[in-house]
Amino acid sequence: MIKVMVKHVLIIIVILASVLQQHARAEQGQFYGGSMSYKMDKQANGTNMVTIELITGWVLGKGPCGPGCSRRDIGRSTRSTRPLMTRTYLDYLGNYTSDYVNRSTGKWETRDMNALVLSTYNETVIAVSEHEKWEQDILHFSFIMPTGTEKLHINFDGEYWRKNFTLQRGTVRWHLQTRVSAAVRSDTGKTNQSPRSFAKPFYRQGISLREYLFA
Questions:
Q1: Which residues pair with 171 in a beta bridge?
Q2: What residues in the chain have per-residue pLDDT under 70?
Q3: pLDDT per residue over 66-91, tens digit each?
Q4: Do 64 and 123 meet the contact criterion of CB atoms below 8 Å apart?
Q5: Whole-number Å distance between alpha carbons of 132 and 21
Q6: At a CB cut-off of 8 Å and minimum separation 6, what does 215 contact?
Q7: 173: Cβ contacts below 8 Å, ≥ 6 apart
Q8: Backbone angles phi, psi at 37, to 5 degrees
């Protein structure tokens, strides 16, 4: 009887710990949104070098800029502060994957790119609003397009969006994606380049007595 009670208590503790951990991670959701694009350059050896550009917006001091982020940090690399934000949860600032067609099976597969990104990235703080409490960072990383691959998808996923930022209830994951194509354009004779976009992390619009946030 005592063993059964202990077992039930342990199960309850595990469940509570899991719930509390998920709640803590949801409370830490400080992501405002961003954009992703790419460019492709032909190398001397005939391969294609792909460079991904990722622009992200965060609650001030809760993103790659790190604690105490201010306007003085604009133009600074995040190499020294990014690790401070991922000590508790390695995926706090998001995960990177690629989707591609396996030439042997003809099916889409997903590959983890976190190790590649974290070992080669270059990230800089590009904007800070101390009044509106947000920061914006730009990250670049590069890789060689796999031989024989015409297209692949680069994904940036994470959890969670800024609390109370979306109209959806509960926690909401984010997903950014750019589709890389090695196809040559018939009009330019060169590979395509994706459009680039740049905007504030969010806009606050007052309507009557209510305020709305727009990504």
A1: none
A2: 1-29, 160-171, 202-215
A3: 999 999 999 999 999 999 999 888 88
A4: yes
A5: 29
A6: 32, 33, 165, 201, 202
A7: 157, 158, 159, 160, 161
A8: -145, 175
Q: Record the pTM.
A: 0.77
DSSP string, the chain: -HHHHHHHHHHHHHHHHHHHHHHHHHHT--EEEEEEEEEEEE-TTS-EEEEEEEEEEEETTSSTT-TT--GGGTT-BSTTTHHHHTSS-TTTT-EEEEEEE-TTT--EEEEE-HHHHHHH-EEEEEEEETTTTEEEEEEEEEEEPPTT--EEEEEEEES-BPTT-SSSSS---EEEEEEEE-PBPTTTSSB---------S-EEEEETTEEEEE-
In the chain, domain spans: 30-214
